[in-house]
Amino acid sequence: MSINLNTVYCPVCKKQQPKIRKPKGWKEILWGGYTCENCGCKMDKYGKERK
Ligand SMILES: [Zn+2]
């Protein structure tokens, strides 16, 4: 597993994602990534939307 140290923005609402975040589920623990607190969009650790 690698960590993306670049700032990540939500692909939907462009909200900046926190660098330190709590995983919202096992997939985020496994793969990294973010769930946008603003719109609930799920994205990977590079800020690409996950379908
Ligand atoms: Zn968002």
Explain briefly what this protein structure is:
Helices cover 12% and strands 8% of the residues. It is mostly loops.
Rg, Å, rounded: 10 Å
Structural class: little secondary structure
Oligomer description = single chain
Largest sheet: 2 strands, antiparallel
Total number of β-strand segments?
2
Kindly report the average pLDDT value: 83
> Termini distance?
20 Å
Proportion of residues in helical segments = 10-25%
Low-confidence stretches: none
Strand line-up in the sheet with most strands: 1-2
What is the H-and-E element order?
A: HEE
- Ligands bound here? zinc ion
The fraction of residues in strands falls at 5-15%
Mind sketching the topology for me?
Elements: H1 26-31, E1 34-35, E2 42-43
Antiparallel strand pairs: 1-2
Model description:
- The model has no long low-confidence stretch (mean pLDDT 83).
- Strands 1-2 form a two-stranded antiparallel ribbon.
- The chain has one helix at 26-31, and strands at 34-35, 42-43.
- Strand 1 and strand 2 (42-43) form a beta hairpin.
- The protein has 51 residues and is largely without helices or strands.
- It has one helix and two strands.
- The protein has one domain (8-51).
- Bound molecules: zinc ion (ZN).
- Residues 10, 12-13, 15, 36, 38-39, 41 line the site of zinc ion.
Structure characteristics:
12% helix, 51 residues, two-stranded antiparallel ribbon, binds zinc ion, little secondary structure, 1 helix, 8% strand
